[in-house]
Amino acid sequence: MWIVLESDGRTKPEHFRPDVLKAFELAQLEMCRIFESFKDAEQ
What we know:
It is a single chain. The chain is an all-alpha fold. The protein has one domain. About 65% of the residues lie in helices and about 0% in strands. The longest helix is centred in the last third of the chain and has 25 residues.
């Protein structure tokens, strides 16, 4: 998520449409929760 929202040196937020960035920003916490729930399931 941070790559899209903040940059990693290869991609920048300006590369994305503003509405796409906003959608990622709004979904960030929920996506992190989902990621963490799958991480626990793999162990």
